[in-house]
Amino acid sequence: MKKIIIASTSTLHGGSYLDYLLPALSVHFNHVKKLLFIPFARPSGITHDEYTRKVSEAFAQIGITVQGIHESDNPIEALENAEAIFTGGGNTFLLVSQLYKTGLMETLEKVVKNGTPYLGTSAGSNICGLTMGTTNDMPIVYPPSFNTLGFVPFNINPHYLDPIEGSTHMGETRETRINEFHHFNPQPVLGLREGSWLEVSGNKITLKGNLPARLFRKNQAPVELEPETDLSDLN
Amino acid sequence: MKKIIIASTSTLHGGSYLDYLLPALSVHFNHVKKLLFIPFARPSGITHDEYTRKVSEAFAQIGITVQGIHESDNPIEALENAEAIFTGGGNTFLLVSQLYKTGLMETLEKVVKNGTPYLGTSAGSNICGLTMGTTNDMPIVYPPSFNTLGFVPFNINPHYLDPIEGSTHMGETRETRINEFHHFNPQPVLGLREGSWLEVSGNKITLKGNLPARLFRKNQAPVELEPETDLSDLN
């Protein structure tokens, strides 16, 4: 039975890394002693070791130790044996490239669909959708495919950002970009604002956090969804 | 001899389509009667016909007629015979996918390097760099490669945006994204603010417009470049 948290961001403005999520993670990772961390997205280019240290410090607060998957001699086996898995944020193109290059994409999909508890933040949440086609990241490397894990039957747009009132910038708004996506792709896109997350429990998908999320469907006007909305039938 | 304008944006806030560039375009396209337009990037998903109409209206003001390349039975021949070429903005992933799929990428490179006057705005400027790896766009389709035309020996970041003071958004700033790019790619990246453009005349590259541009090099602090800076040696 799937047990997944898909969070828009790791960190809220003014907060420290993962702190707003720790109460939910204590429950989500109940009985977990050791977490396997996937550091491939490398935010700001930090090393796998540095990133894993940062994550260890956060999880120490709820009594969980962290191992980086890059430390393992056999990463596929590490995934298969993991008590729980966390994929952190950073650059989605880099993350997806590494998951394919290392052959881990398939195993990650299998073990999480079979019930290994999973947490994704930002890029680590993007890959929970059908494709990475609604990432906000820069294409700094060329991945072999944009297809991702499909833990939910739609796409995620993390760090969803409303148009900035009074902005003089002429680049596209997030909403315009997602509308462009829908000219070429059928699946719904869920814009998760910073502070929102999805809780996936088996086939049940629930919107969590204090903020509404913005749902975009092809050829339909976007709608706002309140916290606790059941998204199990969204596809 | 190359004769190219690479503009950050087609439109300035409060202005109409291409108006701020028309004086420069009158000179750039001096003696041109008919322009071949590449509408593949489809901003906001508009059709090739709609986009071509919009461009025609702008160029009518300086006495140039416009034909969309999609109207041609033989687009490769149309490129080869074009008096001048304009690639408009929109989604860079879509533009690059279409240029490869139609087999036009190679011909476009050849004719512009051989001297057909060219204008690019936004996505049409992105493709003038070595790769599309510093686009701001969403990966709504999967192109066969991120390699682009290399009219300049570096990468372009159009619509360059300074960090927004007081922002509480935790998504990466443009500068952070470009720094991540430099962890995996060696070439310089020129952040062109809206209202700036590059003028390429043979091997001479000059920054135009009223604003400074921001130059990012791997392992170096970014620097501001004043208008009229000669970028011919940047690589």
Automatic annotation (TrEMBL), chains A, B:
SUPFAM superfamilies: Class I glutamine amidotransferase-like. Its EC number is 3.4.13.21. GO terms for molecular function: dipeptidase activity; serine-type peptidase activity. CDD domains: GAT1_Peptidase_E (cd03146). The keyword Repeat does not apply. Keywords: Cytoplasm, Dipeptidase, Hydrolase, Protease, Serine protease. One of its GO terms (cellular component) is cytoplasm. The keyword Hydrolase applies. It catalyses: Dipeptidase E catalyzes the hydrolysis of dipeptides Asp-|-Xaa. It does not act on peptides with N-terminal Glu, Asn or Gln, nor does it cleave isoaspartyl peptides. It is found in: Cytoplasm. Its main location: cytoplasm. It comes from the Bacteria. InterPro entries: Class_I_gatase-like (IPR029062), Peptidase_S51 (IPR005320). GO terms for biological process: proteolysis. Pfam families: Peptidase_S51. Belongs to the peptidase S51 family. This is dipeptidase E. The lineage of its organism: Bacteria, Pseudomonadati, Bacteroidota, Flavobacteriia, Flavobacteriales.
